[in-house]
Every structure is written in C-alpha cells, then in structure tokens.
Design goal:
heterodimer; A: Four Helix Bundle (Hemerythrin (Met), subunit A); 3 strands; B: alpha/beta; Rossmann fold; five-stranded parallel β-sheet; 8 strands; 35% helix
C-alpha cells in the first residue's frame, strides 16, 4: 500500500481491484463547535416556504409544457424525440408535484411515465390513453381546491393505472424481466394502498 | 457538535428543469451556501464542471442532450476528468429499485428520490462531507465503495479477491473531528 501526502490519493492494489482513498477536499467545510441554535434545515425550509406563493403558477407552467408535448406527439407521432419530451414533462411533474403542494398529481404522472417507458414499440402507445393521463393531471391541478379532490383524483388514478397495467402486461407478455418491473408496486409519494 | 460550513463549498446543480434548480438553490442558500453554479443540461454541466471545479454535484437523471448517467460516466474517468472523485448526489423522480442500483453502479455517491426535502438534502450533503467513502477501481467499475457496511454474516459469493482490502475504509471526518476536539 502506497502512503502519500494528505493531498494525494492513497492506493491499495489487490489482484482484481484497487482501493483508493482520494484526497479529501471537503475537510475544509467541517468544524467542531458548541451548538449555536442555528438549524440549517429549519432555515432552508423557511426559505422554501417563502417561495411557496409561486408554486401554483409553476405547476400551471408544468401542465402547459405537458400539454404542448402531448400536442407535438399527436401532430408528429411517437418518435424518439417527441416521446422523450413527453416523458420528461411527466417525469418532472411526478418529482415536483408534492413539493409544489399538488401531491395527488404525482401518481397519474407516474402512470404516464410507466406507459411511455415500458411500451416496447412506441408506435403502439395508445394516444387516447396518453390524452386521458394528460387531461387527468390538468384536471386535478385545476380542481385542487375542491373538497372531494382526493377521492376524485384517487378514482381517476386507479382507473388509469389499471388500464395502463393491462396494456403493459399485454405488450410485455414476452419480456418477463420487464413485466417484473412493470408489476412492482409504485413507490411514488401521493399514492395510497387499496 | 460537528458543523458543515456550506459557505466553504462550491456546488454544481445540473437539472434541465428551471423550477427544480430554483428550489435546490433556495435550499442550499438556506443551509448557508453561497457558491452555487447551475447547468440546464448534461453538456453544460460537463463544461461547468471543468470550469468551476465544484466540491459537490447535484445531478438530475432525465435530461436532454446527454443524461445524468452519461455525465457520470464522463466525470468518473481517471486521467480524463479534472476530479473523478467528486461527490455526485443524484436527484431524480425515478423511484424503482432497479434505477437505484443502476445509478449506484454508474458511480453516484448518494441517491435522493424526488420530491426532495430540506432534511433529505442536508443529510445527503452531510453524509458525503462527514463520511467520505474510498473509491474502488475494478475492470468494470470506478466509483465510491458500494458496500456501506461490513456484514459479518454475509454468506454469498465474494466478487472481489483480496481479502483485507474489502474492509479498508476511510475514517469519517466526524470521528477525526472528535479526536481533535
């Protein structure tokens, strides 16, 4: 084992691998001090809270991007470029919806991602089912203030997911490794168990 | 008490979504960071990585031009990258186990599924700063040690030959700091 100075990597060589301890550039950021009462997480949450007034507008913009990507698919068909653009829009919404205060939107966005990602021949992706997903996402955002929105959103999402799963099971009937992934439970926040 | 001075670190955020970049920047500033550089796609991210020499990278997976995994492969290139050891925290909407494994095998340092929280983000940064892991180079992998802990009860096949090397670890900064304090 070669032992170098602190600013150089230390390397141990073995028959089929090396173990490298790189120079630690981050040590400069570590200090030991008495508790000051400063809570970085609380301060970051407070800063994020100051942004919250913009979240509804941001969610609307994400929905507009999704709709535009859907329209492009319908105008030009499912090609790699149009598919990727639609997938990224749905994927962004899946990841951001809860942060923006729209957690009920994440599950249908996840269902749309699954439909796009796991259909082996993109030409076979049913445009009608894409439409239903996009329209459901937009409707849930639009009606987010309704008292019964959770129930409505859940029923919409459950039906979309059922139809999507049935389609994916058929399309992947000869791909057991993909079927296993497709049929695994969703971990997306905002979903709920039966 | 161990404290991370975020204002001594330079961060690179690579995410094609403007809103997510703003959220990340806001959270990092809340932690005390001042030096946050942003890129909107993989190509710009690679360019800014070379120009700015960041201490920690936050990386989205799904991006146009080239995606997060491709960017990791370019960064984890000993000899070709300015800092192949840079900690990479992947932030993604992907939540499937296979995706986590794929990202780990590409050489990420930490994985954080969206939606992100201030607490989750802070914990990932704390982990890479206070508990740095050694790197492993094999014929097919170059990246942080994927074994977080030594499992004395592990009974499966050993994929590495070399015995003792498998248990070499790097002392966490917390432990180092405590010995100094």
């Amino acid at each position: 084992m070669s032992q170098d100075r602190n600013d150089r990597a230390t390397v141990a060589t073995y028959p089929d691998h090396e173990v490298i301890v790189p120079p630690n550039r981050l040590q400069k950021a570590v200090t030991v001090a008495k508790p000051t009462g400063f809570d970085p997480v609380a301060r970051a949450e407070e800063a994020l809270g100051n942004l919250a007034g913009e979240f509804a507008d941001w969610m609307d913009r994400e929905c507009t991007k999704l709709d535009e990507a859907r329209q492009l698919v319908k105008a030009e068909g499912f090609m790699e470029e149009t598919r990727d653009a639609l997938f990224r829009c749905a994927h962004d919404i899946k990841g951001e919806a809860a942060t923006f205060g729209f957690p009920l939107v994440a599950p249908p966005a996840d269902s749309l991602c699954r439909l796009i990602e796991h259909t082996p021949d993109i030409a076979q992706i049913p445009l009608g089912l894409v439409d239903q997903h996009v329209d459901a996402i937009r409707a849930i955002v639009r009606e987010n203030a309704r008292a019964d929105i959770e129930e409505v959103a859940w029923n919409l999402t459950r039906r979309l997911r059922e139809v999507t799963d049935e389609f994916l099971r058929y399309e992947n009937r000869d791909r057991p490794e993909i079927l296993k992934i497709v049929m695994s439970p969703s971990l997306v926040p905002g979903g709920r168990a039966d | 008490m161990v404290h991370i001075d975020f204002n001594k670190l330079r961060f690179l955020v690579v995410d094609d979504n403007l809103h997510m970049r703003r959220i990340l920047r806001t959270l990092l500033h809340g932690f005390g960071a001042r030096d946050v550089v942003e890129a909107e796609d993989g190509a710009s991210g690679l360019e800014l990585f070379g120009q700015n020499n960041p201490d920690i990278i936050f990386l989205d997976w799904e991006m146009p031009l080239f995606d997060g995994l491709e960017l990791i492969q370019m960064i984890r290139q000993p000899g070709a990258s300015s800092n192949p050891f840079v900690p990479i925290i992947m932030l993604t909407g992907h939540t499937e186990r296979t995706r986590v494994t794929t990202a780990r095998d590409a050489g990420i340092t930490e994985f954080l599924a969206k939606p992100i929280s201030a607490k989750g983000l802070y914990q990932r940064v704390f982990s890479v700063v206070a508990h740095p892991r050694p790197f492993i180079r094999t014929a097919r992998y170059f990246g942080p040690e994927r074994r977080r802990t030594a499992n004395a009860k592990y009974a499966g096949p050993e994929r590495r030959r070399g015995g003792a090397a498998d248990t070499i670890g790097q002392i966490g900064l917390i432990e180092k700091a405590k010995t100094v304090a």
